[in-house]
Amino acid sequence: MAYDRSSSEVNLDLDLGRDPSARDESHRVDDATFRLAVCGDFSAGSAAGSPPGASGVTLGSARAWRVDRDDFDDVLARVSPSLHLDLGSGVVADVQIRELDDFHPDRLLERVPQFARLREVRERLVDPATFRRTAAELSVPRAPTKARPAAPLGGSLLDSIVGMETPQAAAGGGADEALYDFIQRAMAPHLVDRPDPRQGEMIAQADASIASVMRLVLHHPQFQALESLWRGMYRLVREVDTSERLQVYLVDVGRDAVLTDLTTAANARQTQLYDRLATLAPGEHGGWGVLVAHYSFGGSTDDIAMLDRLAEVGAALNAPWLAEAHPDLALGSLGDEAAAAWAHLRSGPAAGHLGLALPRVLLRLPYGKETDACERFNFEELENADSHNSYLWGNPALFCATLLAQGFSERGSGLAVGGVVGNRRAPVAPDAS
Q1: Dihedrals φ, ψ of 160, to 5°?
Q2: Are 403 and 12 in contact (CB under 8 A)?
Q3: What are the extents of the domains in the chain?
Q4: Do the Cβ atoms of 29 and 413 come closer than 8 Å?
Q5: What DSSP letter does each residue of 313-334 carry, written as one string?
Q6: How many Å apart are CA 325 and CA 94, to the nearest integer?
Q7: The dihedral of CA 305, 310, 314, 320: what is its sign?
Q8: 214-228, 279-293, 312-326, 395-409: which has the minimum mean pLDDT?
Q9: Which 3 state secondary structure label does DSSP give 367?
Q10: Residue 217 has what pLDDT?
Q11: φ and ψ of 311, to 5 deg
Q12: For residue 272, is pLDDT > 90?
């Protein structure tokens, strides 16, 4: 079969499908420094003292960090996002992230308080010294044992003694008791306790219980959003050669805060978003090479209106935005009102400052024996092959931003952000939905 380049490589074109002859070349990078900012809910709302899992901090208090591959771990530790996940049935999981490995099931099992009881039971089931007591506490009946056959004539006295159900002789057995105790003491160093046939089955049941709760955590929308954001940032800084000429920033602000800001300000230059970004990277012609809104936008009129205002902020900063588009926007399956708003956005003067990307990108393979096995318990993340939403998908805008940064590394100033950057291999696998 011939290799299909289109299935694994990407052309980046930030023109919202407009006529190539009408391209706006105003996004040519002429500065000696290329700055890339990613706006997202990096703290999961916890930075401003709001409950874990809230929609994000306000723009007025939004924190920002310059980040590269060398200090990524330090930045994540400083942000320290936390989540308060409602798993249903009255079960709540408190998750704190201090490093990228904290997203891994082994680390979650170790650190999330709600796993403590399950973890303890499993450890006691694995330990032969505590297994029987734990099994009894769990009210699991002991597996029936076969009746031991009588010792044949001339057989070992030891066999007969071991087969006895009690150490008592038939009656008045004081001497027999002493003999029994003596033989038991002599035998003890040489006896090997046989494994209980229930142990493997009960450990498997404990693993299944842990796995069912672990899937609820890993696939919770808030957890997926946070893991996707940080893993996407990690991939970006790993694939971009940052330096004084190429700088990457993360700006901690949630989508709801951005939406409120955009809809309440009189114009783009009066938004807190504009003020925060202009302060971070001041410049006569705008200090940013590209801006990423790590949010997803669908075909609703509210989403399209938010995109329109974002584009206006980009125009005021002389920097293009990149964001994720829902397939509705590309397929044209919009209602009349949304279609009119979309047409207005595409024809507006700020449209050249907005680029939308799709499809999503797979950030990691599911956990499992054949992919990334867990050490603390047996775990298969996907229960069936059709669990599409259980995969960890990444925002394609980050991938496009990576292409632009790599293009600057190769071409330097003069890079036309609004044009085709080139063909690049897409990471892992695209979302085929």
Answers
A1: -65, -40
A2: yes
A3: 5-68+242-360+395-425
A4: yes
A5: HHHHHT--EEEEE-HHHHHT--
A6: 31
A7: negative
A8: 279-293
A9: coil
A10: 97
A11: -60, -40
A12: yes
User: Cα separation of 428 and 433, whole Å?
Assistant: 15
Query: 274-304, pLDDT tens digit by residue?
Result: 999 999 877 655 689 999 999 999 999 999 9
Joined tokens for residue 16: 């919202």
| 78-126 pLDDT, tens digit each | 999 999 999 998 889 999 999 999 999 999 999 999 999 999 999 999 9
pLDDT attached to residue 198: 84
Give the distance, in angstroms, between the CA of residue 312 and the centroid of all CA atoms in the same chain: 31
Total Cβ atoms within 10 A of residue 249: 18
Residues 6+ apart with CB under 8 A from 321: 290, 291, 292, 293, 310, 311, 313, 314, 353, 354, 355
Task: State the Rg of the chain over Cα.
Answer: 31
In the numeric block, which tokens belong to residue 37? 């900012």
User: What is the rounded CA–CA span in Å between residue 65 and residue 181?
Assistant: 73
Whether residue 113 contacts residue 74, with contact meaning beta carbons closer than 8 Å, is answered with no
Distance of alpha carbon 200 from the chain centroid: 31
Instruction: Report yes or no: 56 and 41 within 8 Å, Cβ to Cβ.
Output: yes
Q: Do the beta carbons of residue 323 and residue 293 sit within 8 Å?
A: yes
Burial (Cβ within 10 Å: 0-12, 13-18, ≥19) of residue 14: buried
Amino acid at 327: P
Counting Cβ atoms within 10 Å, is residue 284 exposed (0-12), middle (13-18) or buried (19+)? Answer: exposed
Q: What pLDDT digit, counting tens, does each position of 50-90 carry?
A: 444 344 456 766 899 999 999 999 999 999 999 999 999 88
